[in-house]
């Protein structure tokens, strides 16, 4: 089991529990995570959702070595269908769960890791958190759920994509992507305290407030942009498949440096 789930005091806590792999996301991991989000969304005793992770790192992103559900011959058709469901549809679904959600992030949050924290309404980051999307190094223009421009602003978005470098918690807090930066050993307590404060608010009003903000972003073009950039992402896979027969143009072992 890759995901832990518990409810106490109107707060559902979803915990990523694959620390030996830096919480890298294979198919089973994501399916279990989606089931946990659905469970929290449908539980009338849950007012707030916390997403956290066991181990040193929040998430090293997608486990591109696969997880038992990858065919011997990978095609672009398979990639589009697989990524549409698990990397785009899941993420948009979590974003629109009608309850406030808070991500607690420590250590590395790489590429696909952003797809876990960005759908949350609030982000509390430990002071050791590092955020990056080095997929341009892999021959792809950005991770599937392209929230970069909305979360960071256009120039910071281009900077992290063009360079592949990681941004510190304080850097992303300055852009508004992170609500609060706290010492690593206080991350869980600070996140819980924030969730407890929110859980005291009227649930219907919270639902309406979240809907208002999300719809404002959608009217500005968020949803359409996410959908269109997903298609751009797939052209990167198509190019890689035509060159190397694999979805990314990179030696996988070379990417391990991103999670040390």
Automatic annotation (TrEMBL):
<protein>
    <submittedName>
        <fullName>Enoyl-CoA hydratase/carnithine racemase</fullName>
    </submittedName>
</protein>
<dbReference type="InterPro" id="IPR029045">
    <property type="entry name" value="ClpP/crotonase-like_dom_sf"/>
</dbReference>
<comment type="similarity">
    <text>Belongs to the enoyl-CoA hydratase/isomerase family.</text>
</comment>
<dbReference type="Pfam" id="PF00378">
    <property type="entry name" value="ECH_1"/>
</dbReference>
<dbReference type="GO" id="GO:0003824">
    <property type="term" value="F:catalytic activity"/>
</dbReference>
<dbReference type="InterPro" id="IPR001753">
    <property type="entry name" value="Enoyl-CoA_hydra/iso"/>
</dbReference>
């Amino acid at each position: 089991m890759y995901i832990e789930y518990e409810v106490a005091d109107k707060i559902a806590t979803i915990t990523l529990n694959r620390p030996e792999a830096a919480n890298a996301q294979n198919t089973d991991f994501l399916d279990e995570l989606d089931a946990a989000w659905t469970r929290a969304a449908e539980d009338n005793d849950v007012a707030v959702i916390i997403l956290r992770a066991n181990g040193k790192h929040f998430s090293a992103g997608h486990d591109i070595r696969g997880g038992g559900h990858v065919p011997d011959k990978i095609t672009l058709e398979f990639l589009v269908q697989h990524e549409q469901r698990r990397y785009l549809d899941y993420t948009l679904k979590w974003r629109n769960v009608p309850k406030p959600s808070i991500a607690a992030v420590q250590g590395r949050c790489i590429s696909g890791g952003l797809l876990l924290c960005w759908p949350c309404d609030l982000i509390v980051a430990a002071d050791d958190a590092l955020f990056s999307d080095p997929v341009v190094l892999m021959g792809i223009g950005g991770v599937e759920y392209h929230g970069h421009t909305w979360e960071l602003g256009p120039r910071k978005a281009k900077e992290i994509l063009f360079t592949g470098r990681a941004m510190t918690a304080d850097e992303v807090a300055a852009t508004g992507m992170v609500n609060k930066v706290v010492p690593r050993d206080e991350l869980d307590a600070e996140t819980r305290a924030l969730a407890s404060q929110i859980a005291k608010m009227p649930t219907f009003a919270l639902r309406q407030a979240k809907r208002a903000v999300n719809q404002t972003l959608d009217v500005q073009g968020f949803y359409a942009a996410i959908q269109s950039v997903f298609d751009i992402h797939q052209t990167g896979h198509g190019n890689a498949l035509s060159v190397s027969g694999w979805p990314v143009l990179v030696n996988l072992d070379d990417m391990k440096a991103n999670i040390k």
